[in-house]
Amino acid sequence: MDRTELYRKVLLSVAGNKLVEKLSLKYGRKLASKFIAGDTLAEALNEIEVLNSKGIMVTLDHLGEGIKALSEASGYKEEYLRLVDGIAERNVLSNVSLKPTQMGLALDPEACYSNIREVVGRAKKHGNFVRIDMEDSPFTQATIDIVLRLHGEGLTNVGTVIQAYLRRTEEDVRKLIDAGVNLRLVKGAYKEPGTVAFQQMSEVIANYQKIIRMHLDRGVYTAIASHDDRIIQWVKEYARANGIGKDAFEFQMLYGLRMNEQERLAKEGYRIRCYMPYGTMWYPYYTRRLAEKPANLWMVLKNMFK
Question: Residue ranges of the Proline dehydrogenase domain (predicted)?
């Protein structure tokens, strides 16, 4: 296990401590604002306009996951309907990301499906796209099933996320490409056991490059979500060497991280999309961002007393 992977596992374990969570929720909101566009939809839409003016597209996410009652899921659904309508009204370049557990997946899979279907249907009326985020491994198959079921009903303006660190990923990618599902490709940010996920970062990166090649070689539009310069440069070189145009893929990065690099990629003519979350349920998302690499934590600590 390399140092970065050890750091990630330790931080995720510490973040799961209830006392740490309580203290973070009490004192950490200002620090979390680095990664979050605002508490409200209006604030997020304003920030999308700023990024669009710099040539950066957006995928907008209303924070929330792991709900305890279906009434919460209904509230999230209504916010997503407003979100989809707001994107259309403001005519900004943004699609939508949502988490299945915030729509009720862990409580009532059918109710979850109904909630997501309503959001995807509204997005289709506006000519927009919905990305169903991938959470930890107990929800992987259920999330894939939701997407395939929606496609089967003619709602093809929906895709999901595939995590390179899962051992099952290569086979999932083959099936989903064949089904015409648009995928966001990521390394993976949850704490998973060795039985289901690669534990060495070298294995994760090798699998990540493999599933990117599977997309590019098949001529399937590819969304590559990474801040890793090695991956980004490798994709650029692979595309040039194989005559793959810049319109065949997009890079995706997170709001608040490497914003100058996002602008630079846009100026180079690459398609770049920023994953932008907003809302008050920020703690789980925030801790996963800190856990991705020590530099993220160091950046927050440097700004703690400013």
Answer: 44-296
Provide the annotated active-site residues: 133, 184
66 is in an annotated binding site: no
Spatial distance between the Cα atoms of 224 and 186, rounded to a whole number of angstroms:
7
Of the pLDDT bands very low, low, confident and very high (cuts 50, 70, 90), residue 130 is: very high
Q: In the 8-state DSSP scheme, what is residue 195? A: T
Residue 54 has pLDDT above 60, yes or no: yes
- Which residue(s) pair with 159 in the sheet? 131
- Determine the pLDDT at residue 306: 43
Run of H or E including 290: helix 283-292
Q: Parse the chain into domains and list their residue ranges.
A: 36-281
Is the pTM of the predicted complex or chain greater than 0.90? no
According to the model, what pLDDT value does residue 285 have? 58
Strand 183-186 with 158-163, pairing = parallel
Task: Give CA–CA dist 16/22, Å, rounded.
Answer: 10
How many other β-carbons are positioned within 10 Å of the β-carbon of residue 6? 10
Q: What is the CATH number of domain 36-281?
A: 3.20.20.220
- Is 53 annotated to bind a ligand? Reply is no
